[in-house]
Amino acid sequence: MTVRRLLLPLLAAAGLAACSSLPSVNPMDWFGNKPSGPKPAELPVLTNAQGVRVLWSSSIGAAEAFVFSPTLNGDSVYAASRAGTVARLEAASGQARWRISLGKRISGGVGSDGALVVVASDDGEVFALDARDGAVKWRARVSSEVLAAPKLGEGLVLVRSADSRIFAFGAEDGKRRWVYQRPAASLIVRSPAGLTIHMGAAYAGFSGGRLVAITLANGSARWEATVALPKGATELERVTDIVGDPAALGREVCAAAYQGRVACYDGQNGNQLWAREMSTLTGVSFDARYAFISDDKGAVHALDRSNGRSIWKQDRLAHRQLSLPLPLGTEVALGDLQGYIHMLARESGAFLARVATDGSPVRAAPVKLPDGFLVQTQSGGLYALTLQ
Question: What are the tens digits of pLDDT across the range 8-62?
């Protein structure tokens, strides 16, 4: 197994890892450590701010130096912590249906299809739990640490390891069905870059700015596209990794690269629809009309999904290490490094509201709930919120 160590980049928000025989060290502040880069912008004063109501709150346990994301399936929320706690909560009330401890340290978000709940560890162990009671149904292993939440669909559990491999396991029995592998660059962004299952394919981004559509039936590449090409004089400047999960809706799939571009493609054949120069550490999200990006300097962008044209830019949250934005009808929600949740107007980017959580960073994207949205903080707080 390849061991990875962290190199210290100039950008405080990025964790960069290199292939090496040296021991691993802790990720940088994008994973929750003390900031060492530019000072975060002061919070703007909000006039006529709308209220934000806490529907419920709970605690799952700290993420430590990892990024944990909850997931919603049906009427339940599933969440996990670094210490190995996994829980099923009622989405409407936050009441726990079950809470178990795996006795193992896990390293990323939760995946669920309503029947299984899947988590994984930083030594490559995968745990599939029965969604009814949390009992372990099967275990499997991948080749290195897992930073992103597993994805479930079409009878498969897909787990992405940090060494650029995607493992497909049968949801019923945990048996390996296929493995997709790409060579990893010598220097990569160490972030919870995952994958997206959509219309019979898994879409995943890799180092070198490559986006791949993988056929779920057999693990073969359906098409491959270049979101961004590496450029620059140094190895650090040439890091161009796809970050976050690709966004897919209908025939369209979009992805974003660190020090690169955001681009959208026809999901059936990989033909590029449009592209914009932009650097991000969290990826891209979209709704029926706009694509939303938090760039690596702390500006939030809304782009026209049909052609990539800029609709608005909100730059008053500079260097606040923003999460991926979540569109919510007429609002957009996102978190920052101090645990604040910011609500922006979908059509203009104007500030609508702001609410504090527990003071620890919100690294994972908010998750949409039937009556609001859910955030998980690095300290393990779960907050279900809605704009009043």
Answer: 232 333 445 543 322 232 333 444 445 567 999 999 999 999 999 999 999 999 9
**pLDDT (average), residues 129-155:** 97
Q: How many CA atoms lie within 13 A of 17 on its CB side?
A: 26
Contact 333, 342 (CB under 8 A): yes
Contacts 24+ apart (CB under 8 A), 294-298: 294/322, 294/323, 294/324, 294/325, 294/334, 296/11, 296/13, 296/14, 296/258, 298/40, 298/41, 298/322
- 130, 166 contact by CB (below 8 A): no
Question: What's the farthest any 2 CA atoms get from each other in the chain?
Answer: 56
Give the rounded distance of the alpha carbon of 357 from its chain centre: 20
Give 210: exposed, middle or buried? Use CB within 10 Å, 0-12, 13-18, 19+: buried
According to DSSP, the residues that pair with 176 across neighbouring strands are 169
* Closest listed residue to residue 261, CA positions, set 289, 221, 303: 303
**Separation between Cα atoms, residue 262 and residue 205, nearest integer Å:** 12
Condensed to tens digits (0 to 9), the pLDDT of residues 290-347 reads 999 999 999 999 999 999 999 999 999 999 999 999 999 999 999 999 999 999 999 9
Q: pLDDT digits over 69-90, tens only?
A: 999 999 999 999 999 999 999 9
- Do residues 296 and 11 make contact, with C-beta atoms less than 8 angstroms apart? yes
Q: Any idea which residue has 């903080």 for tokens? A: 377
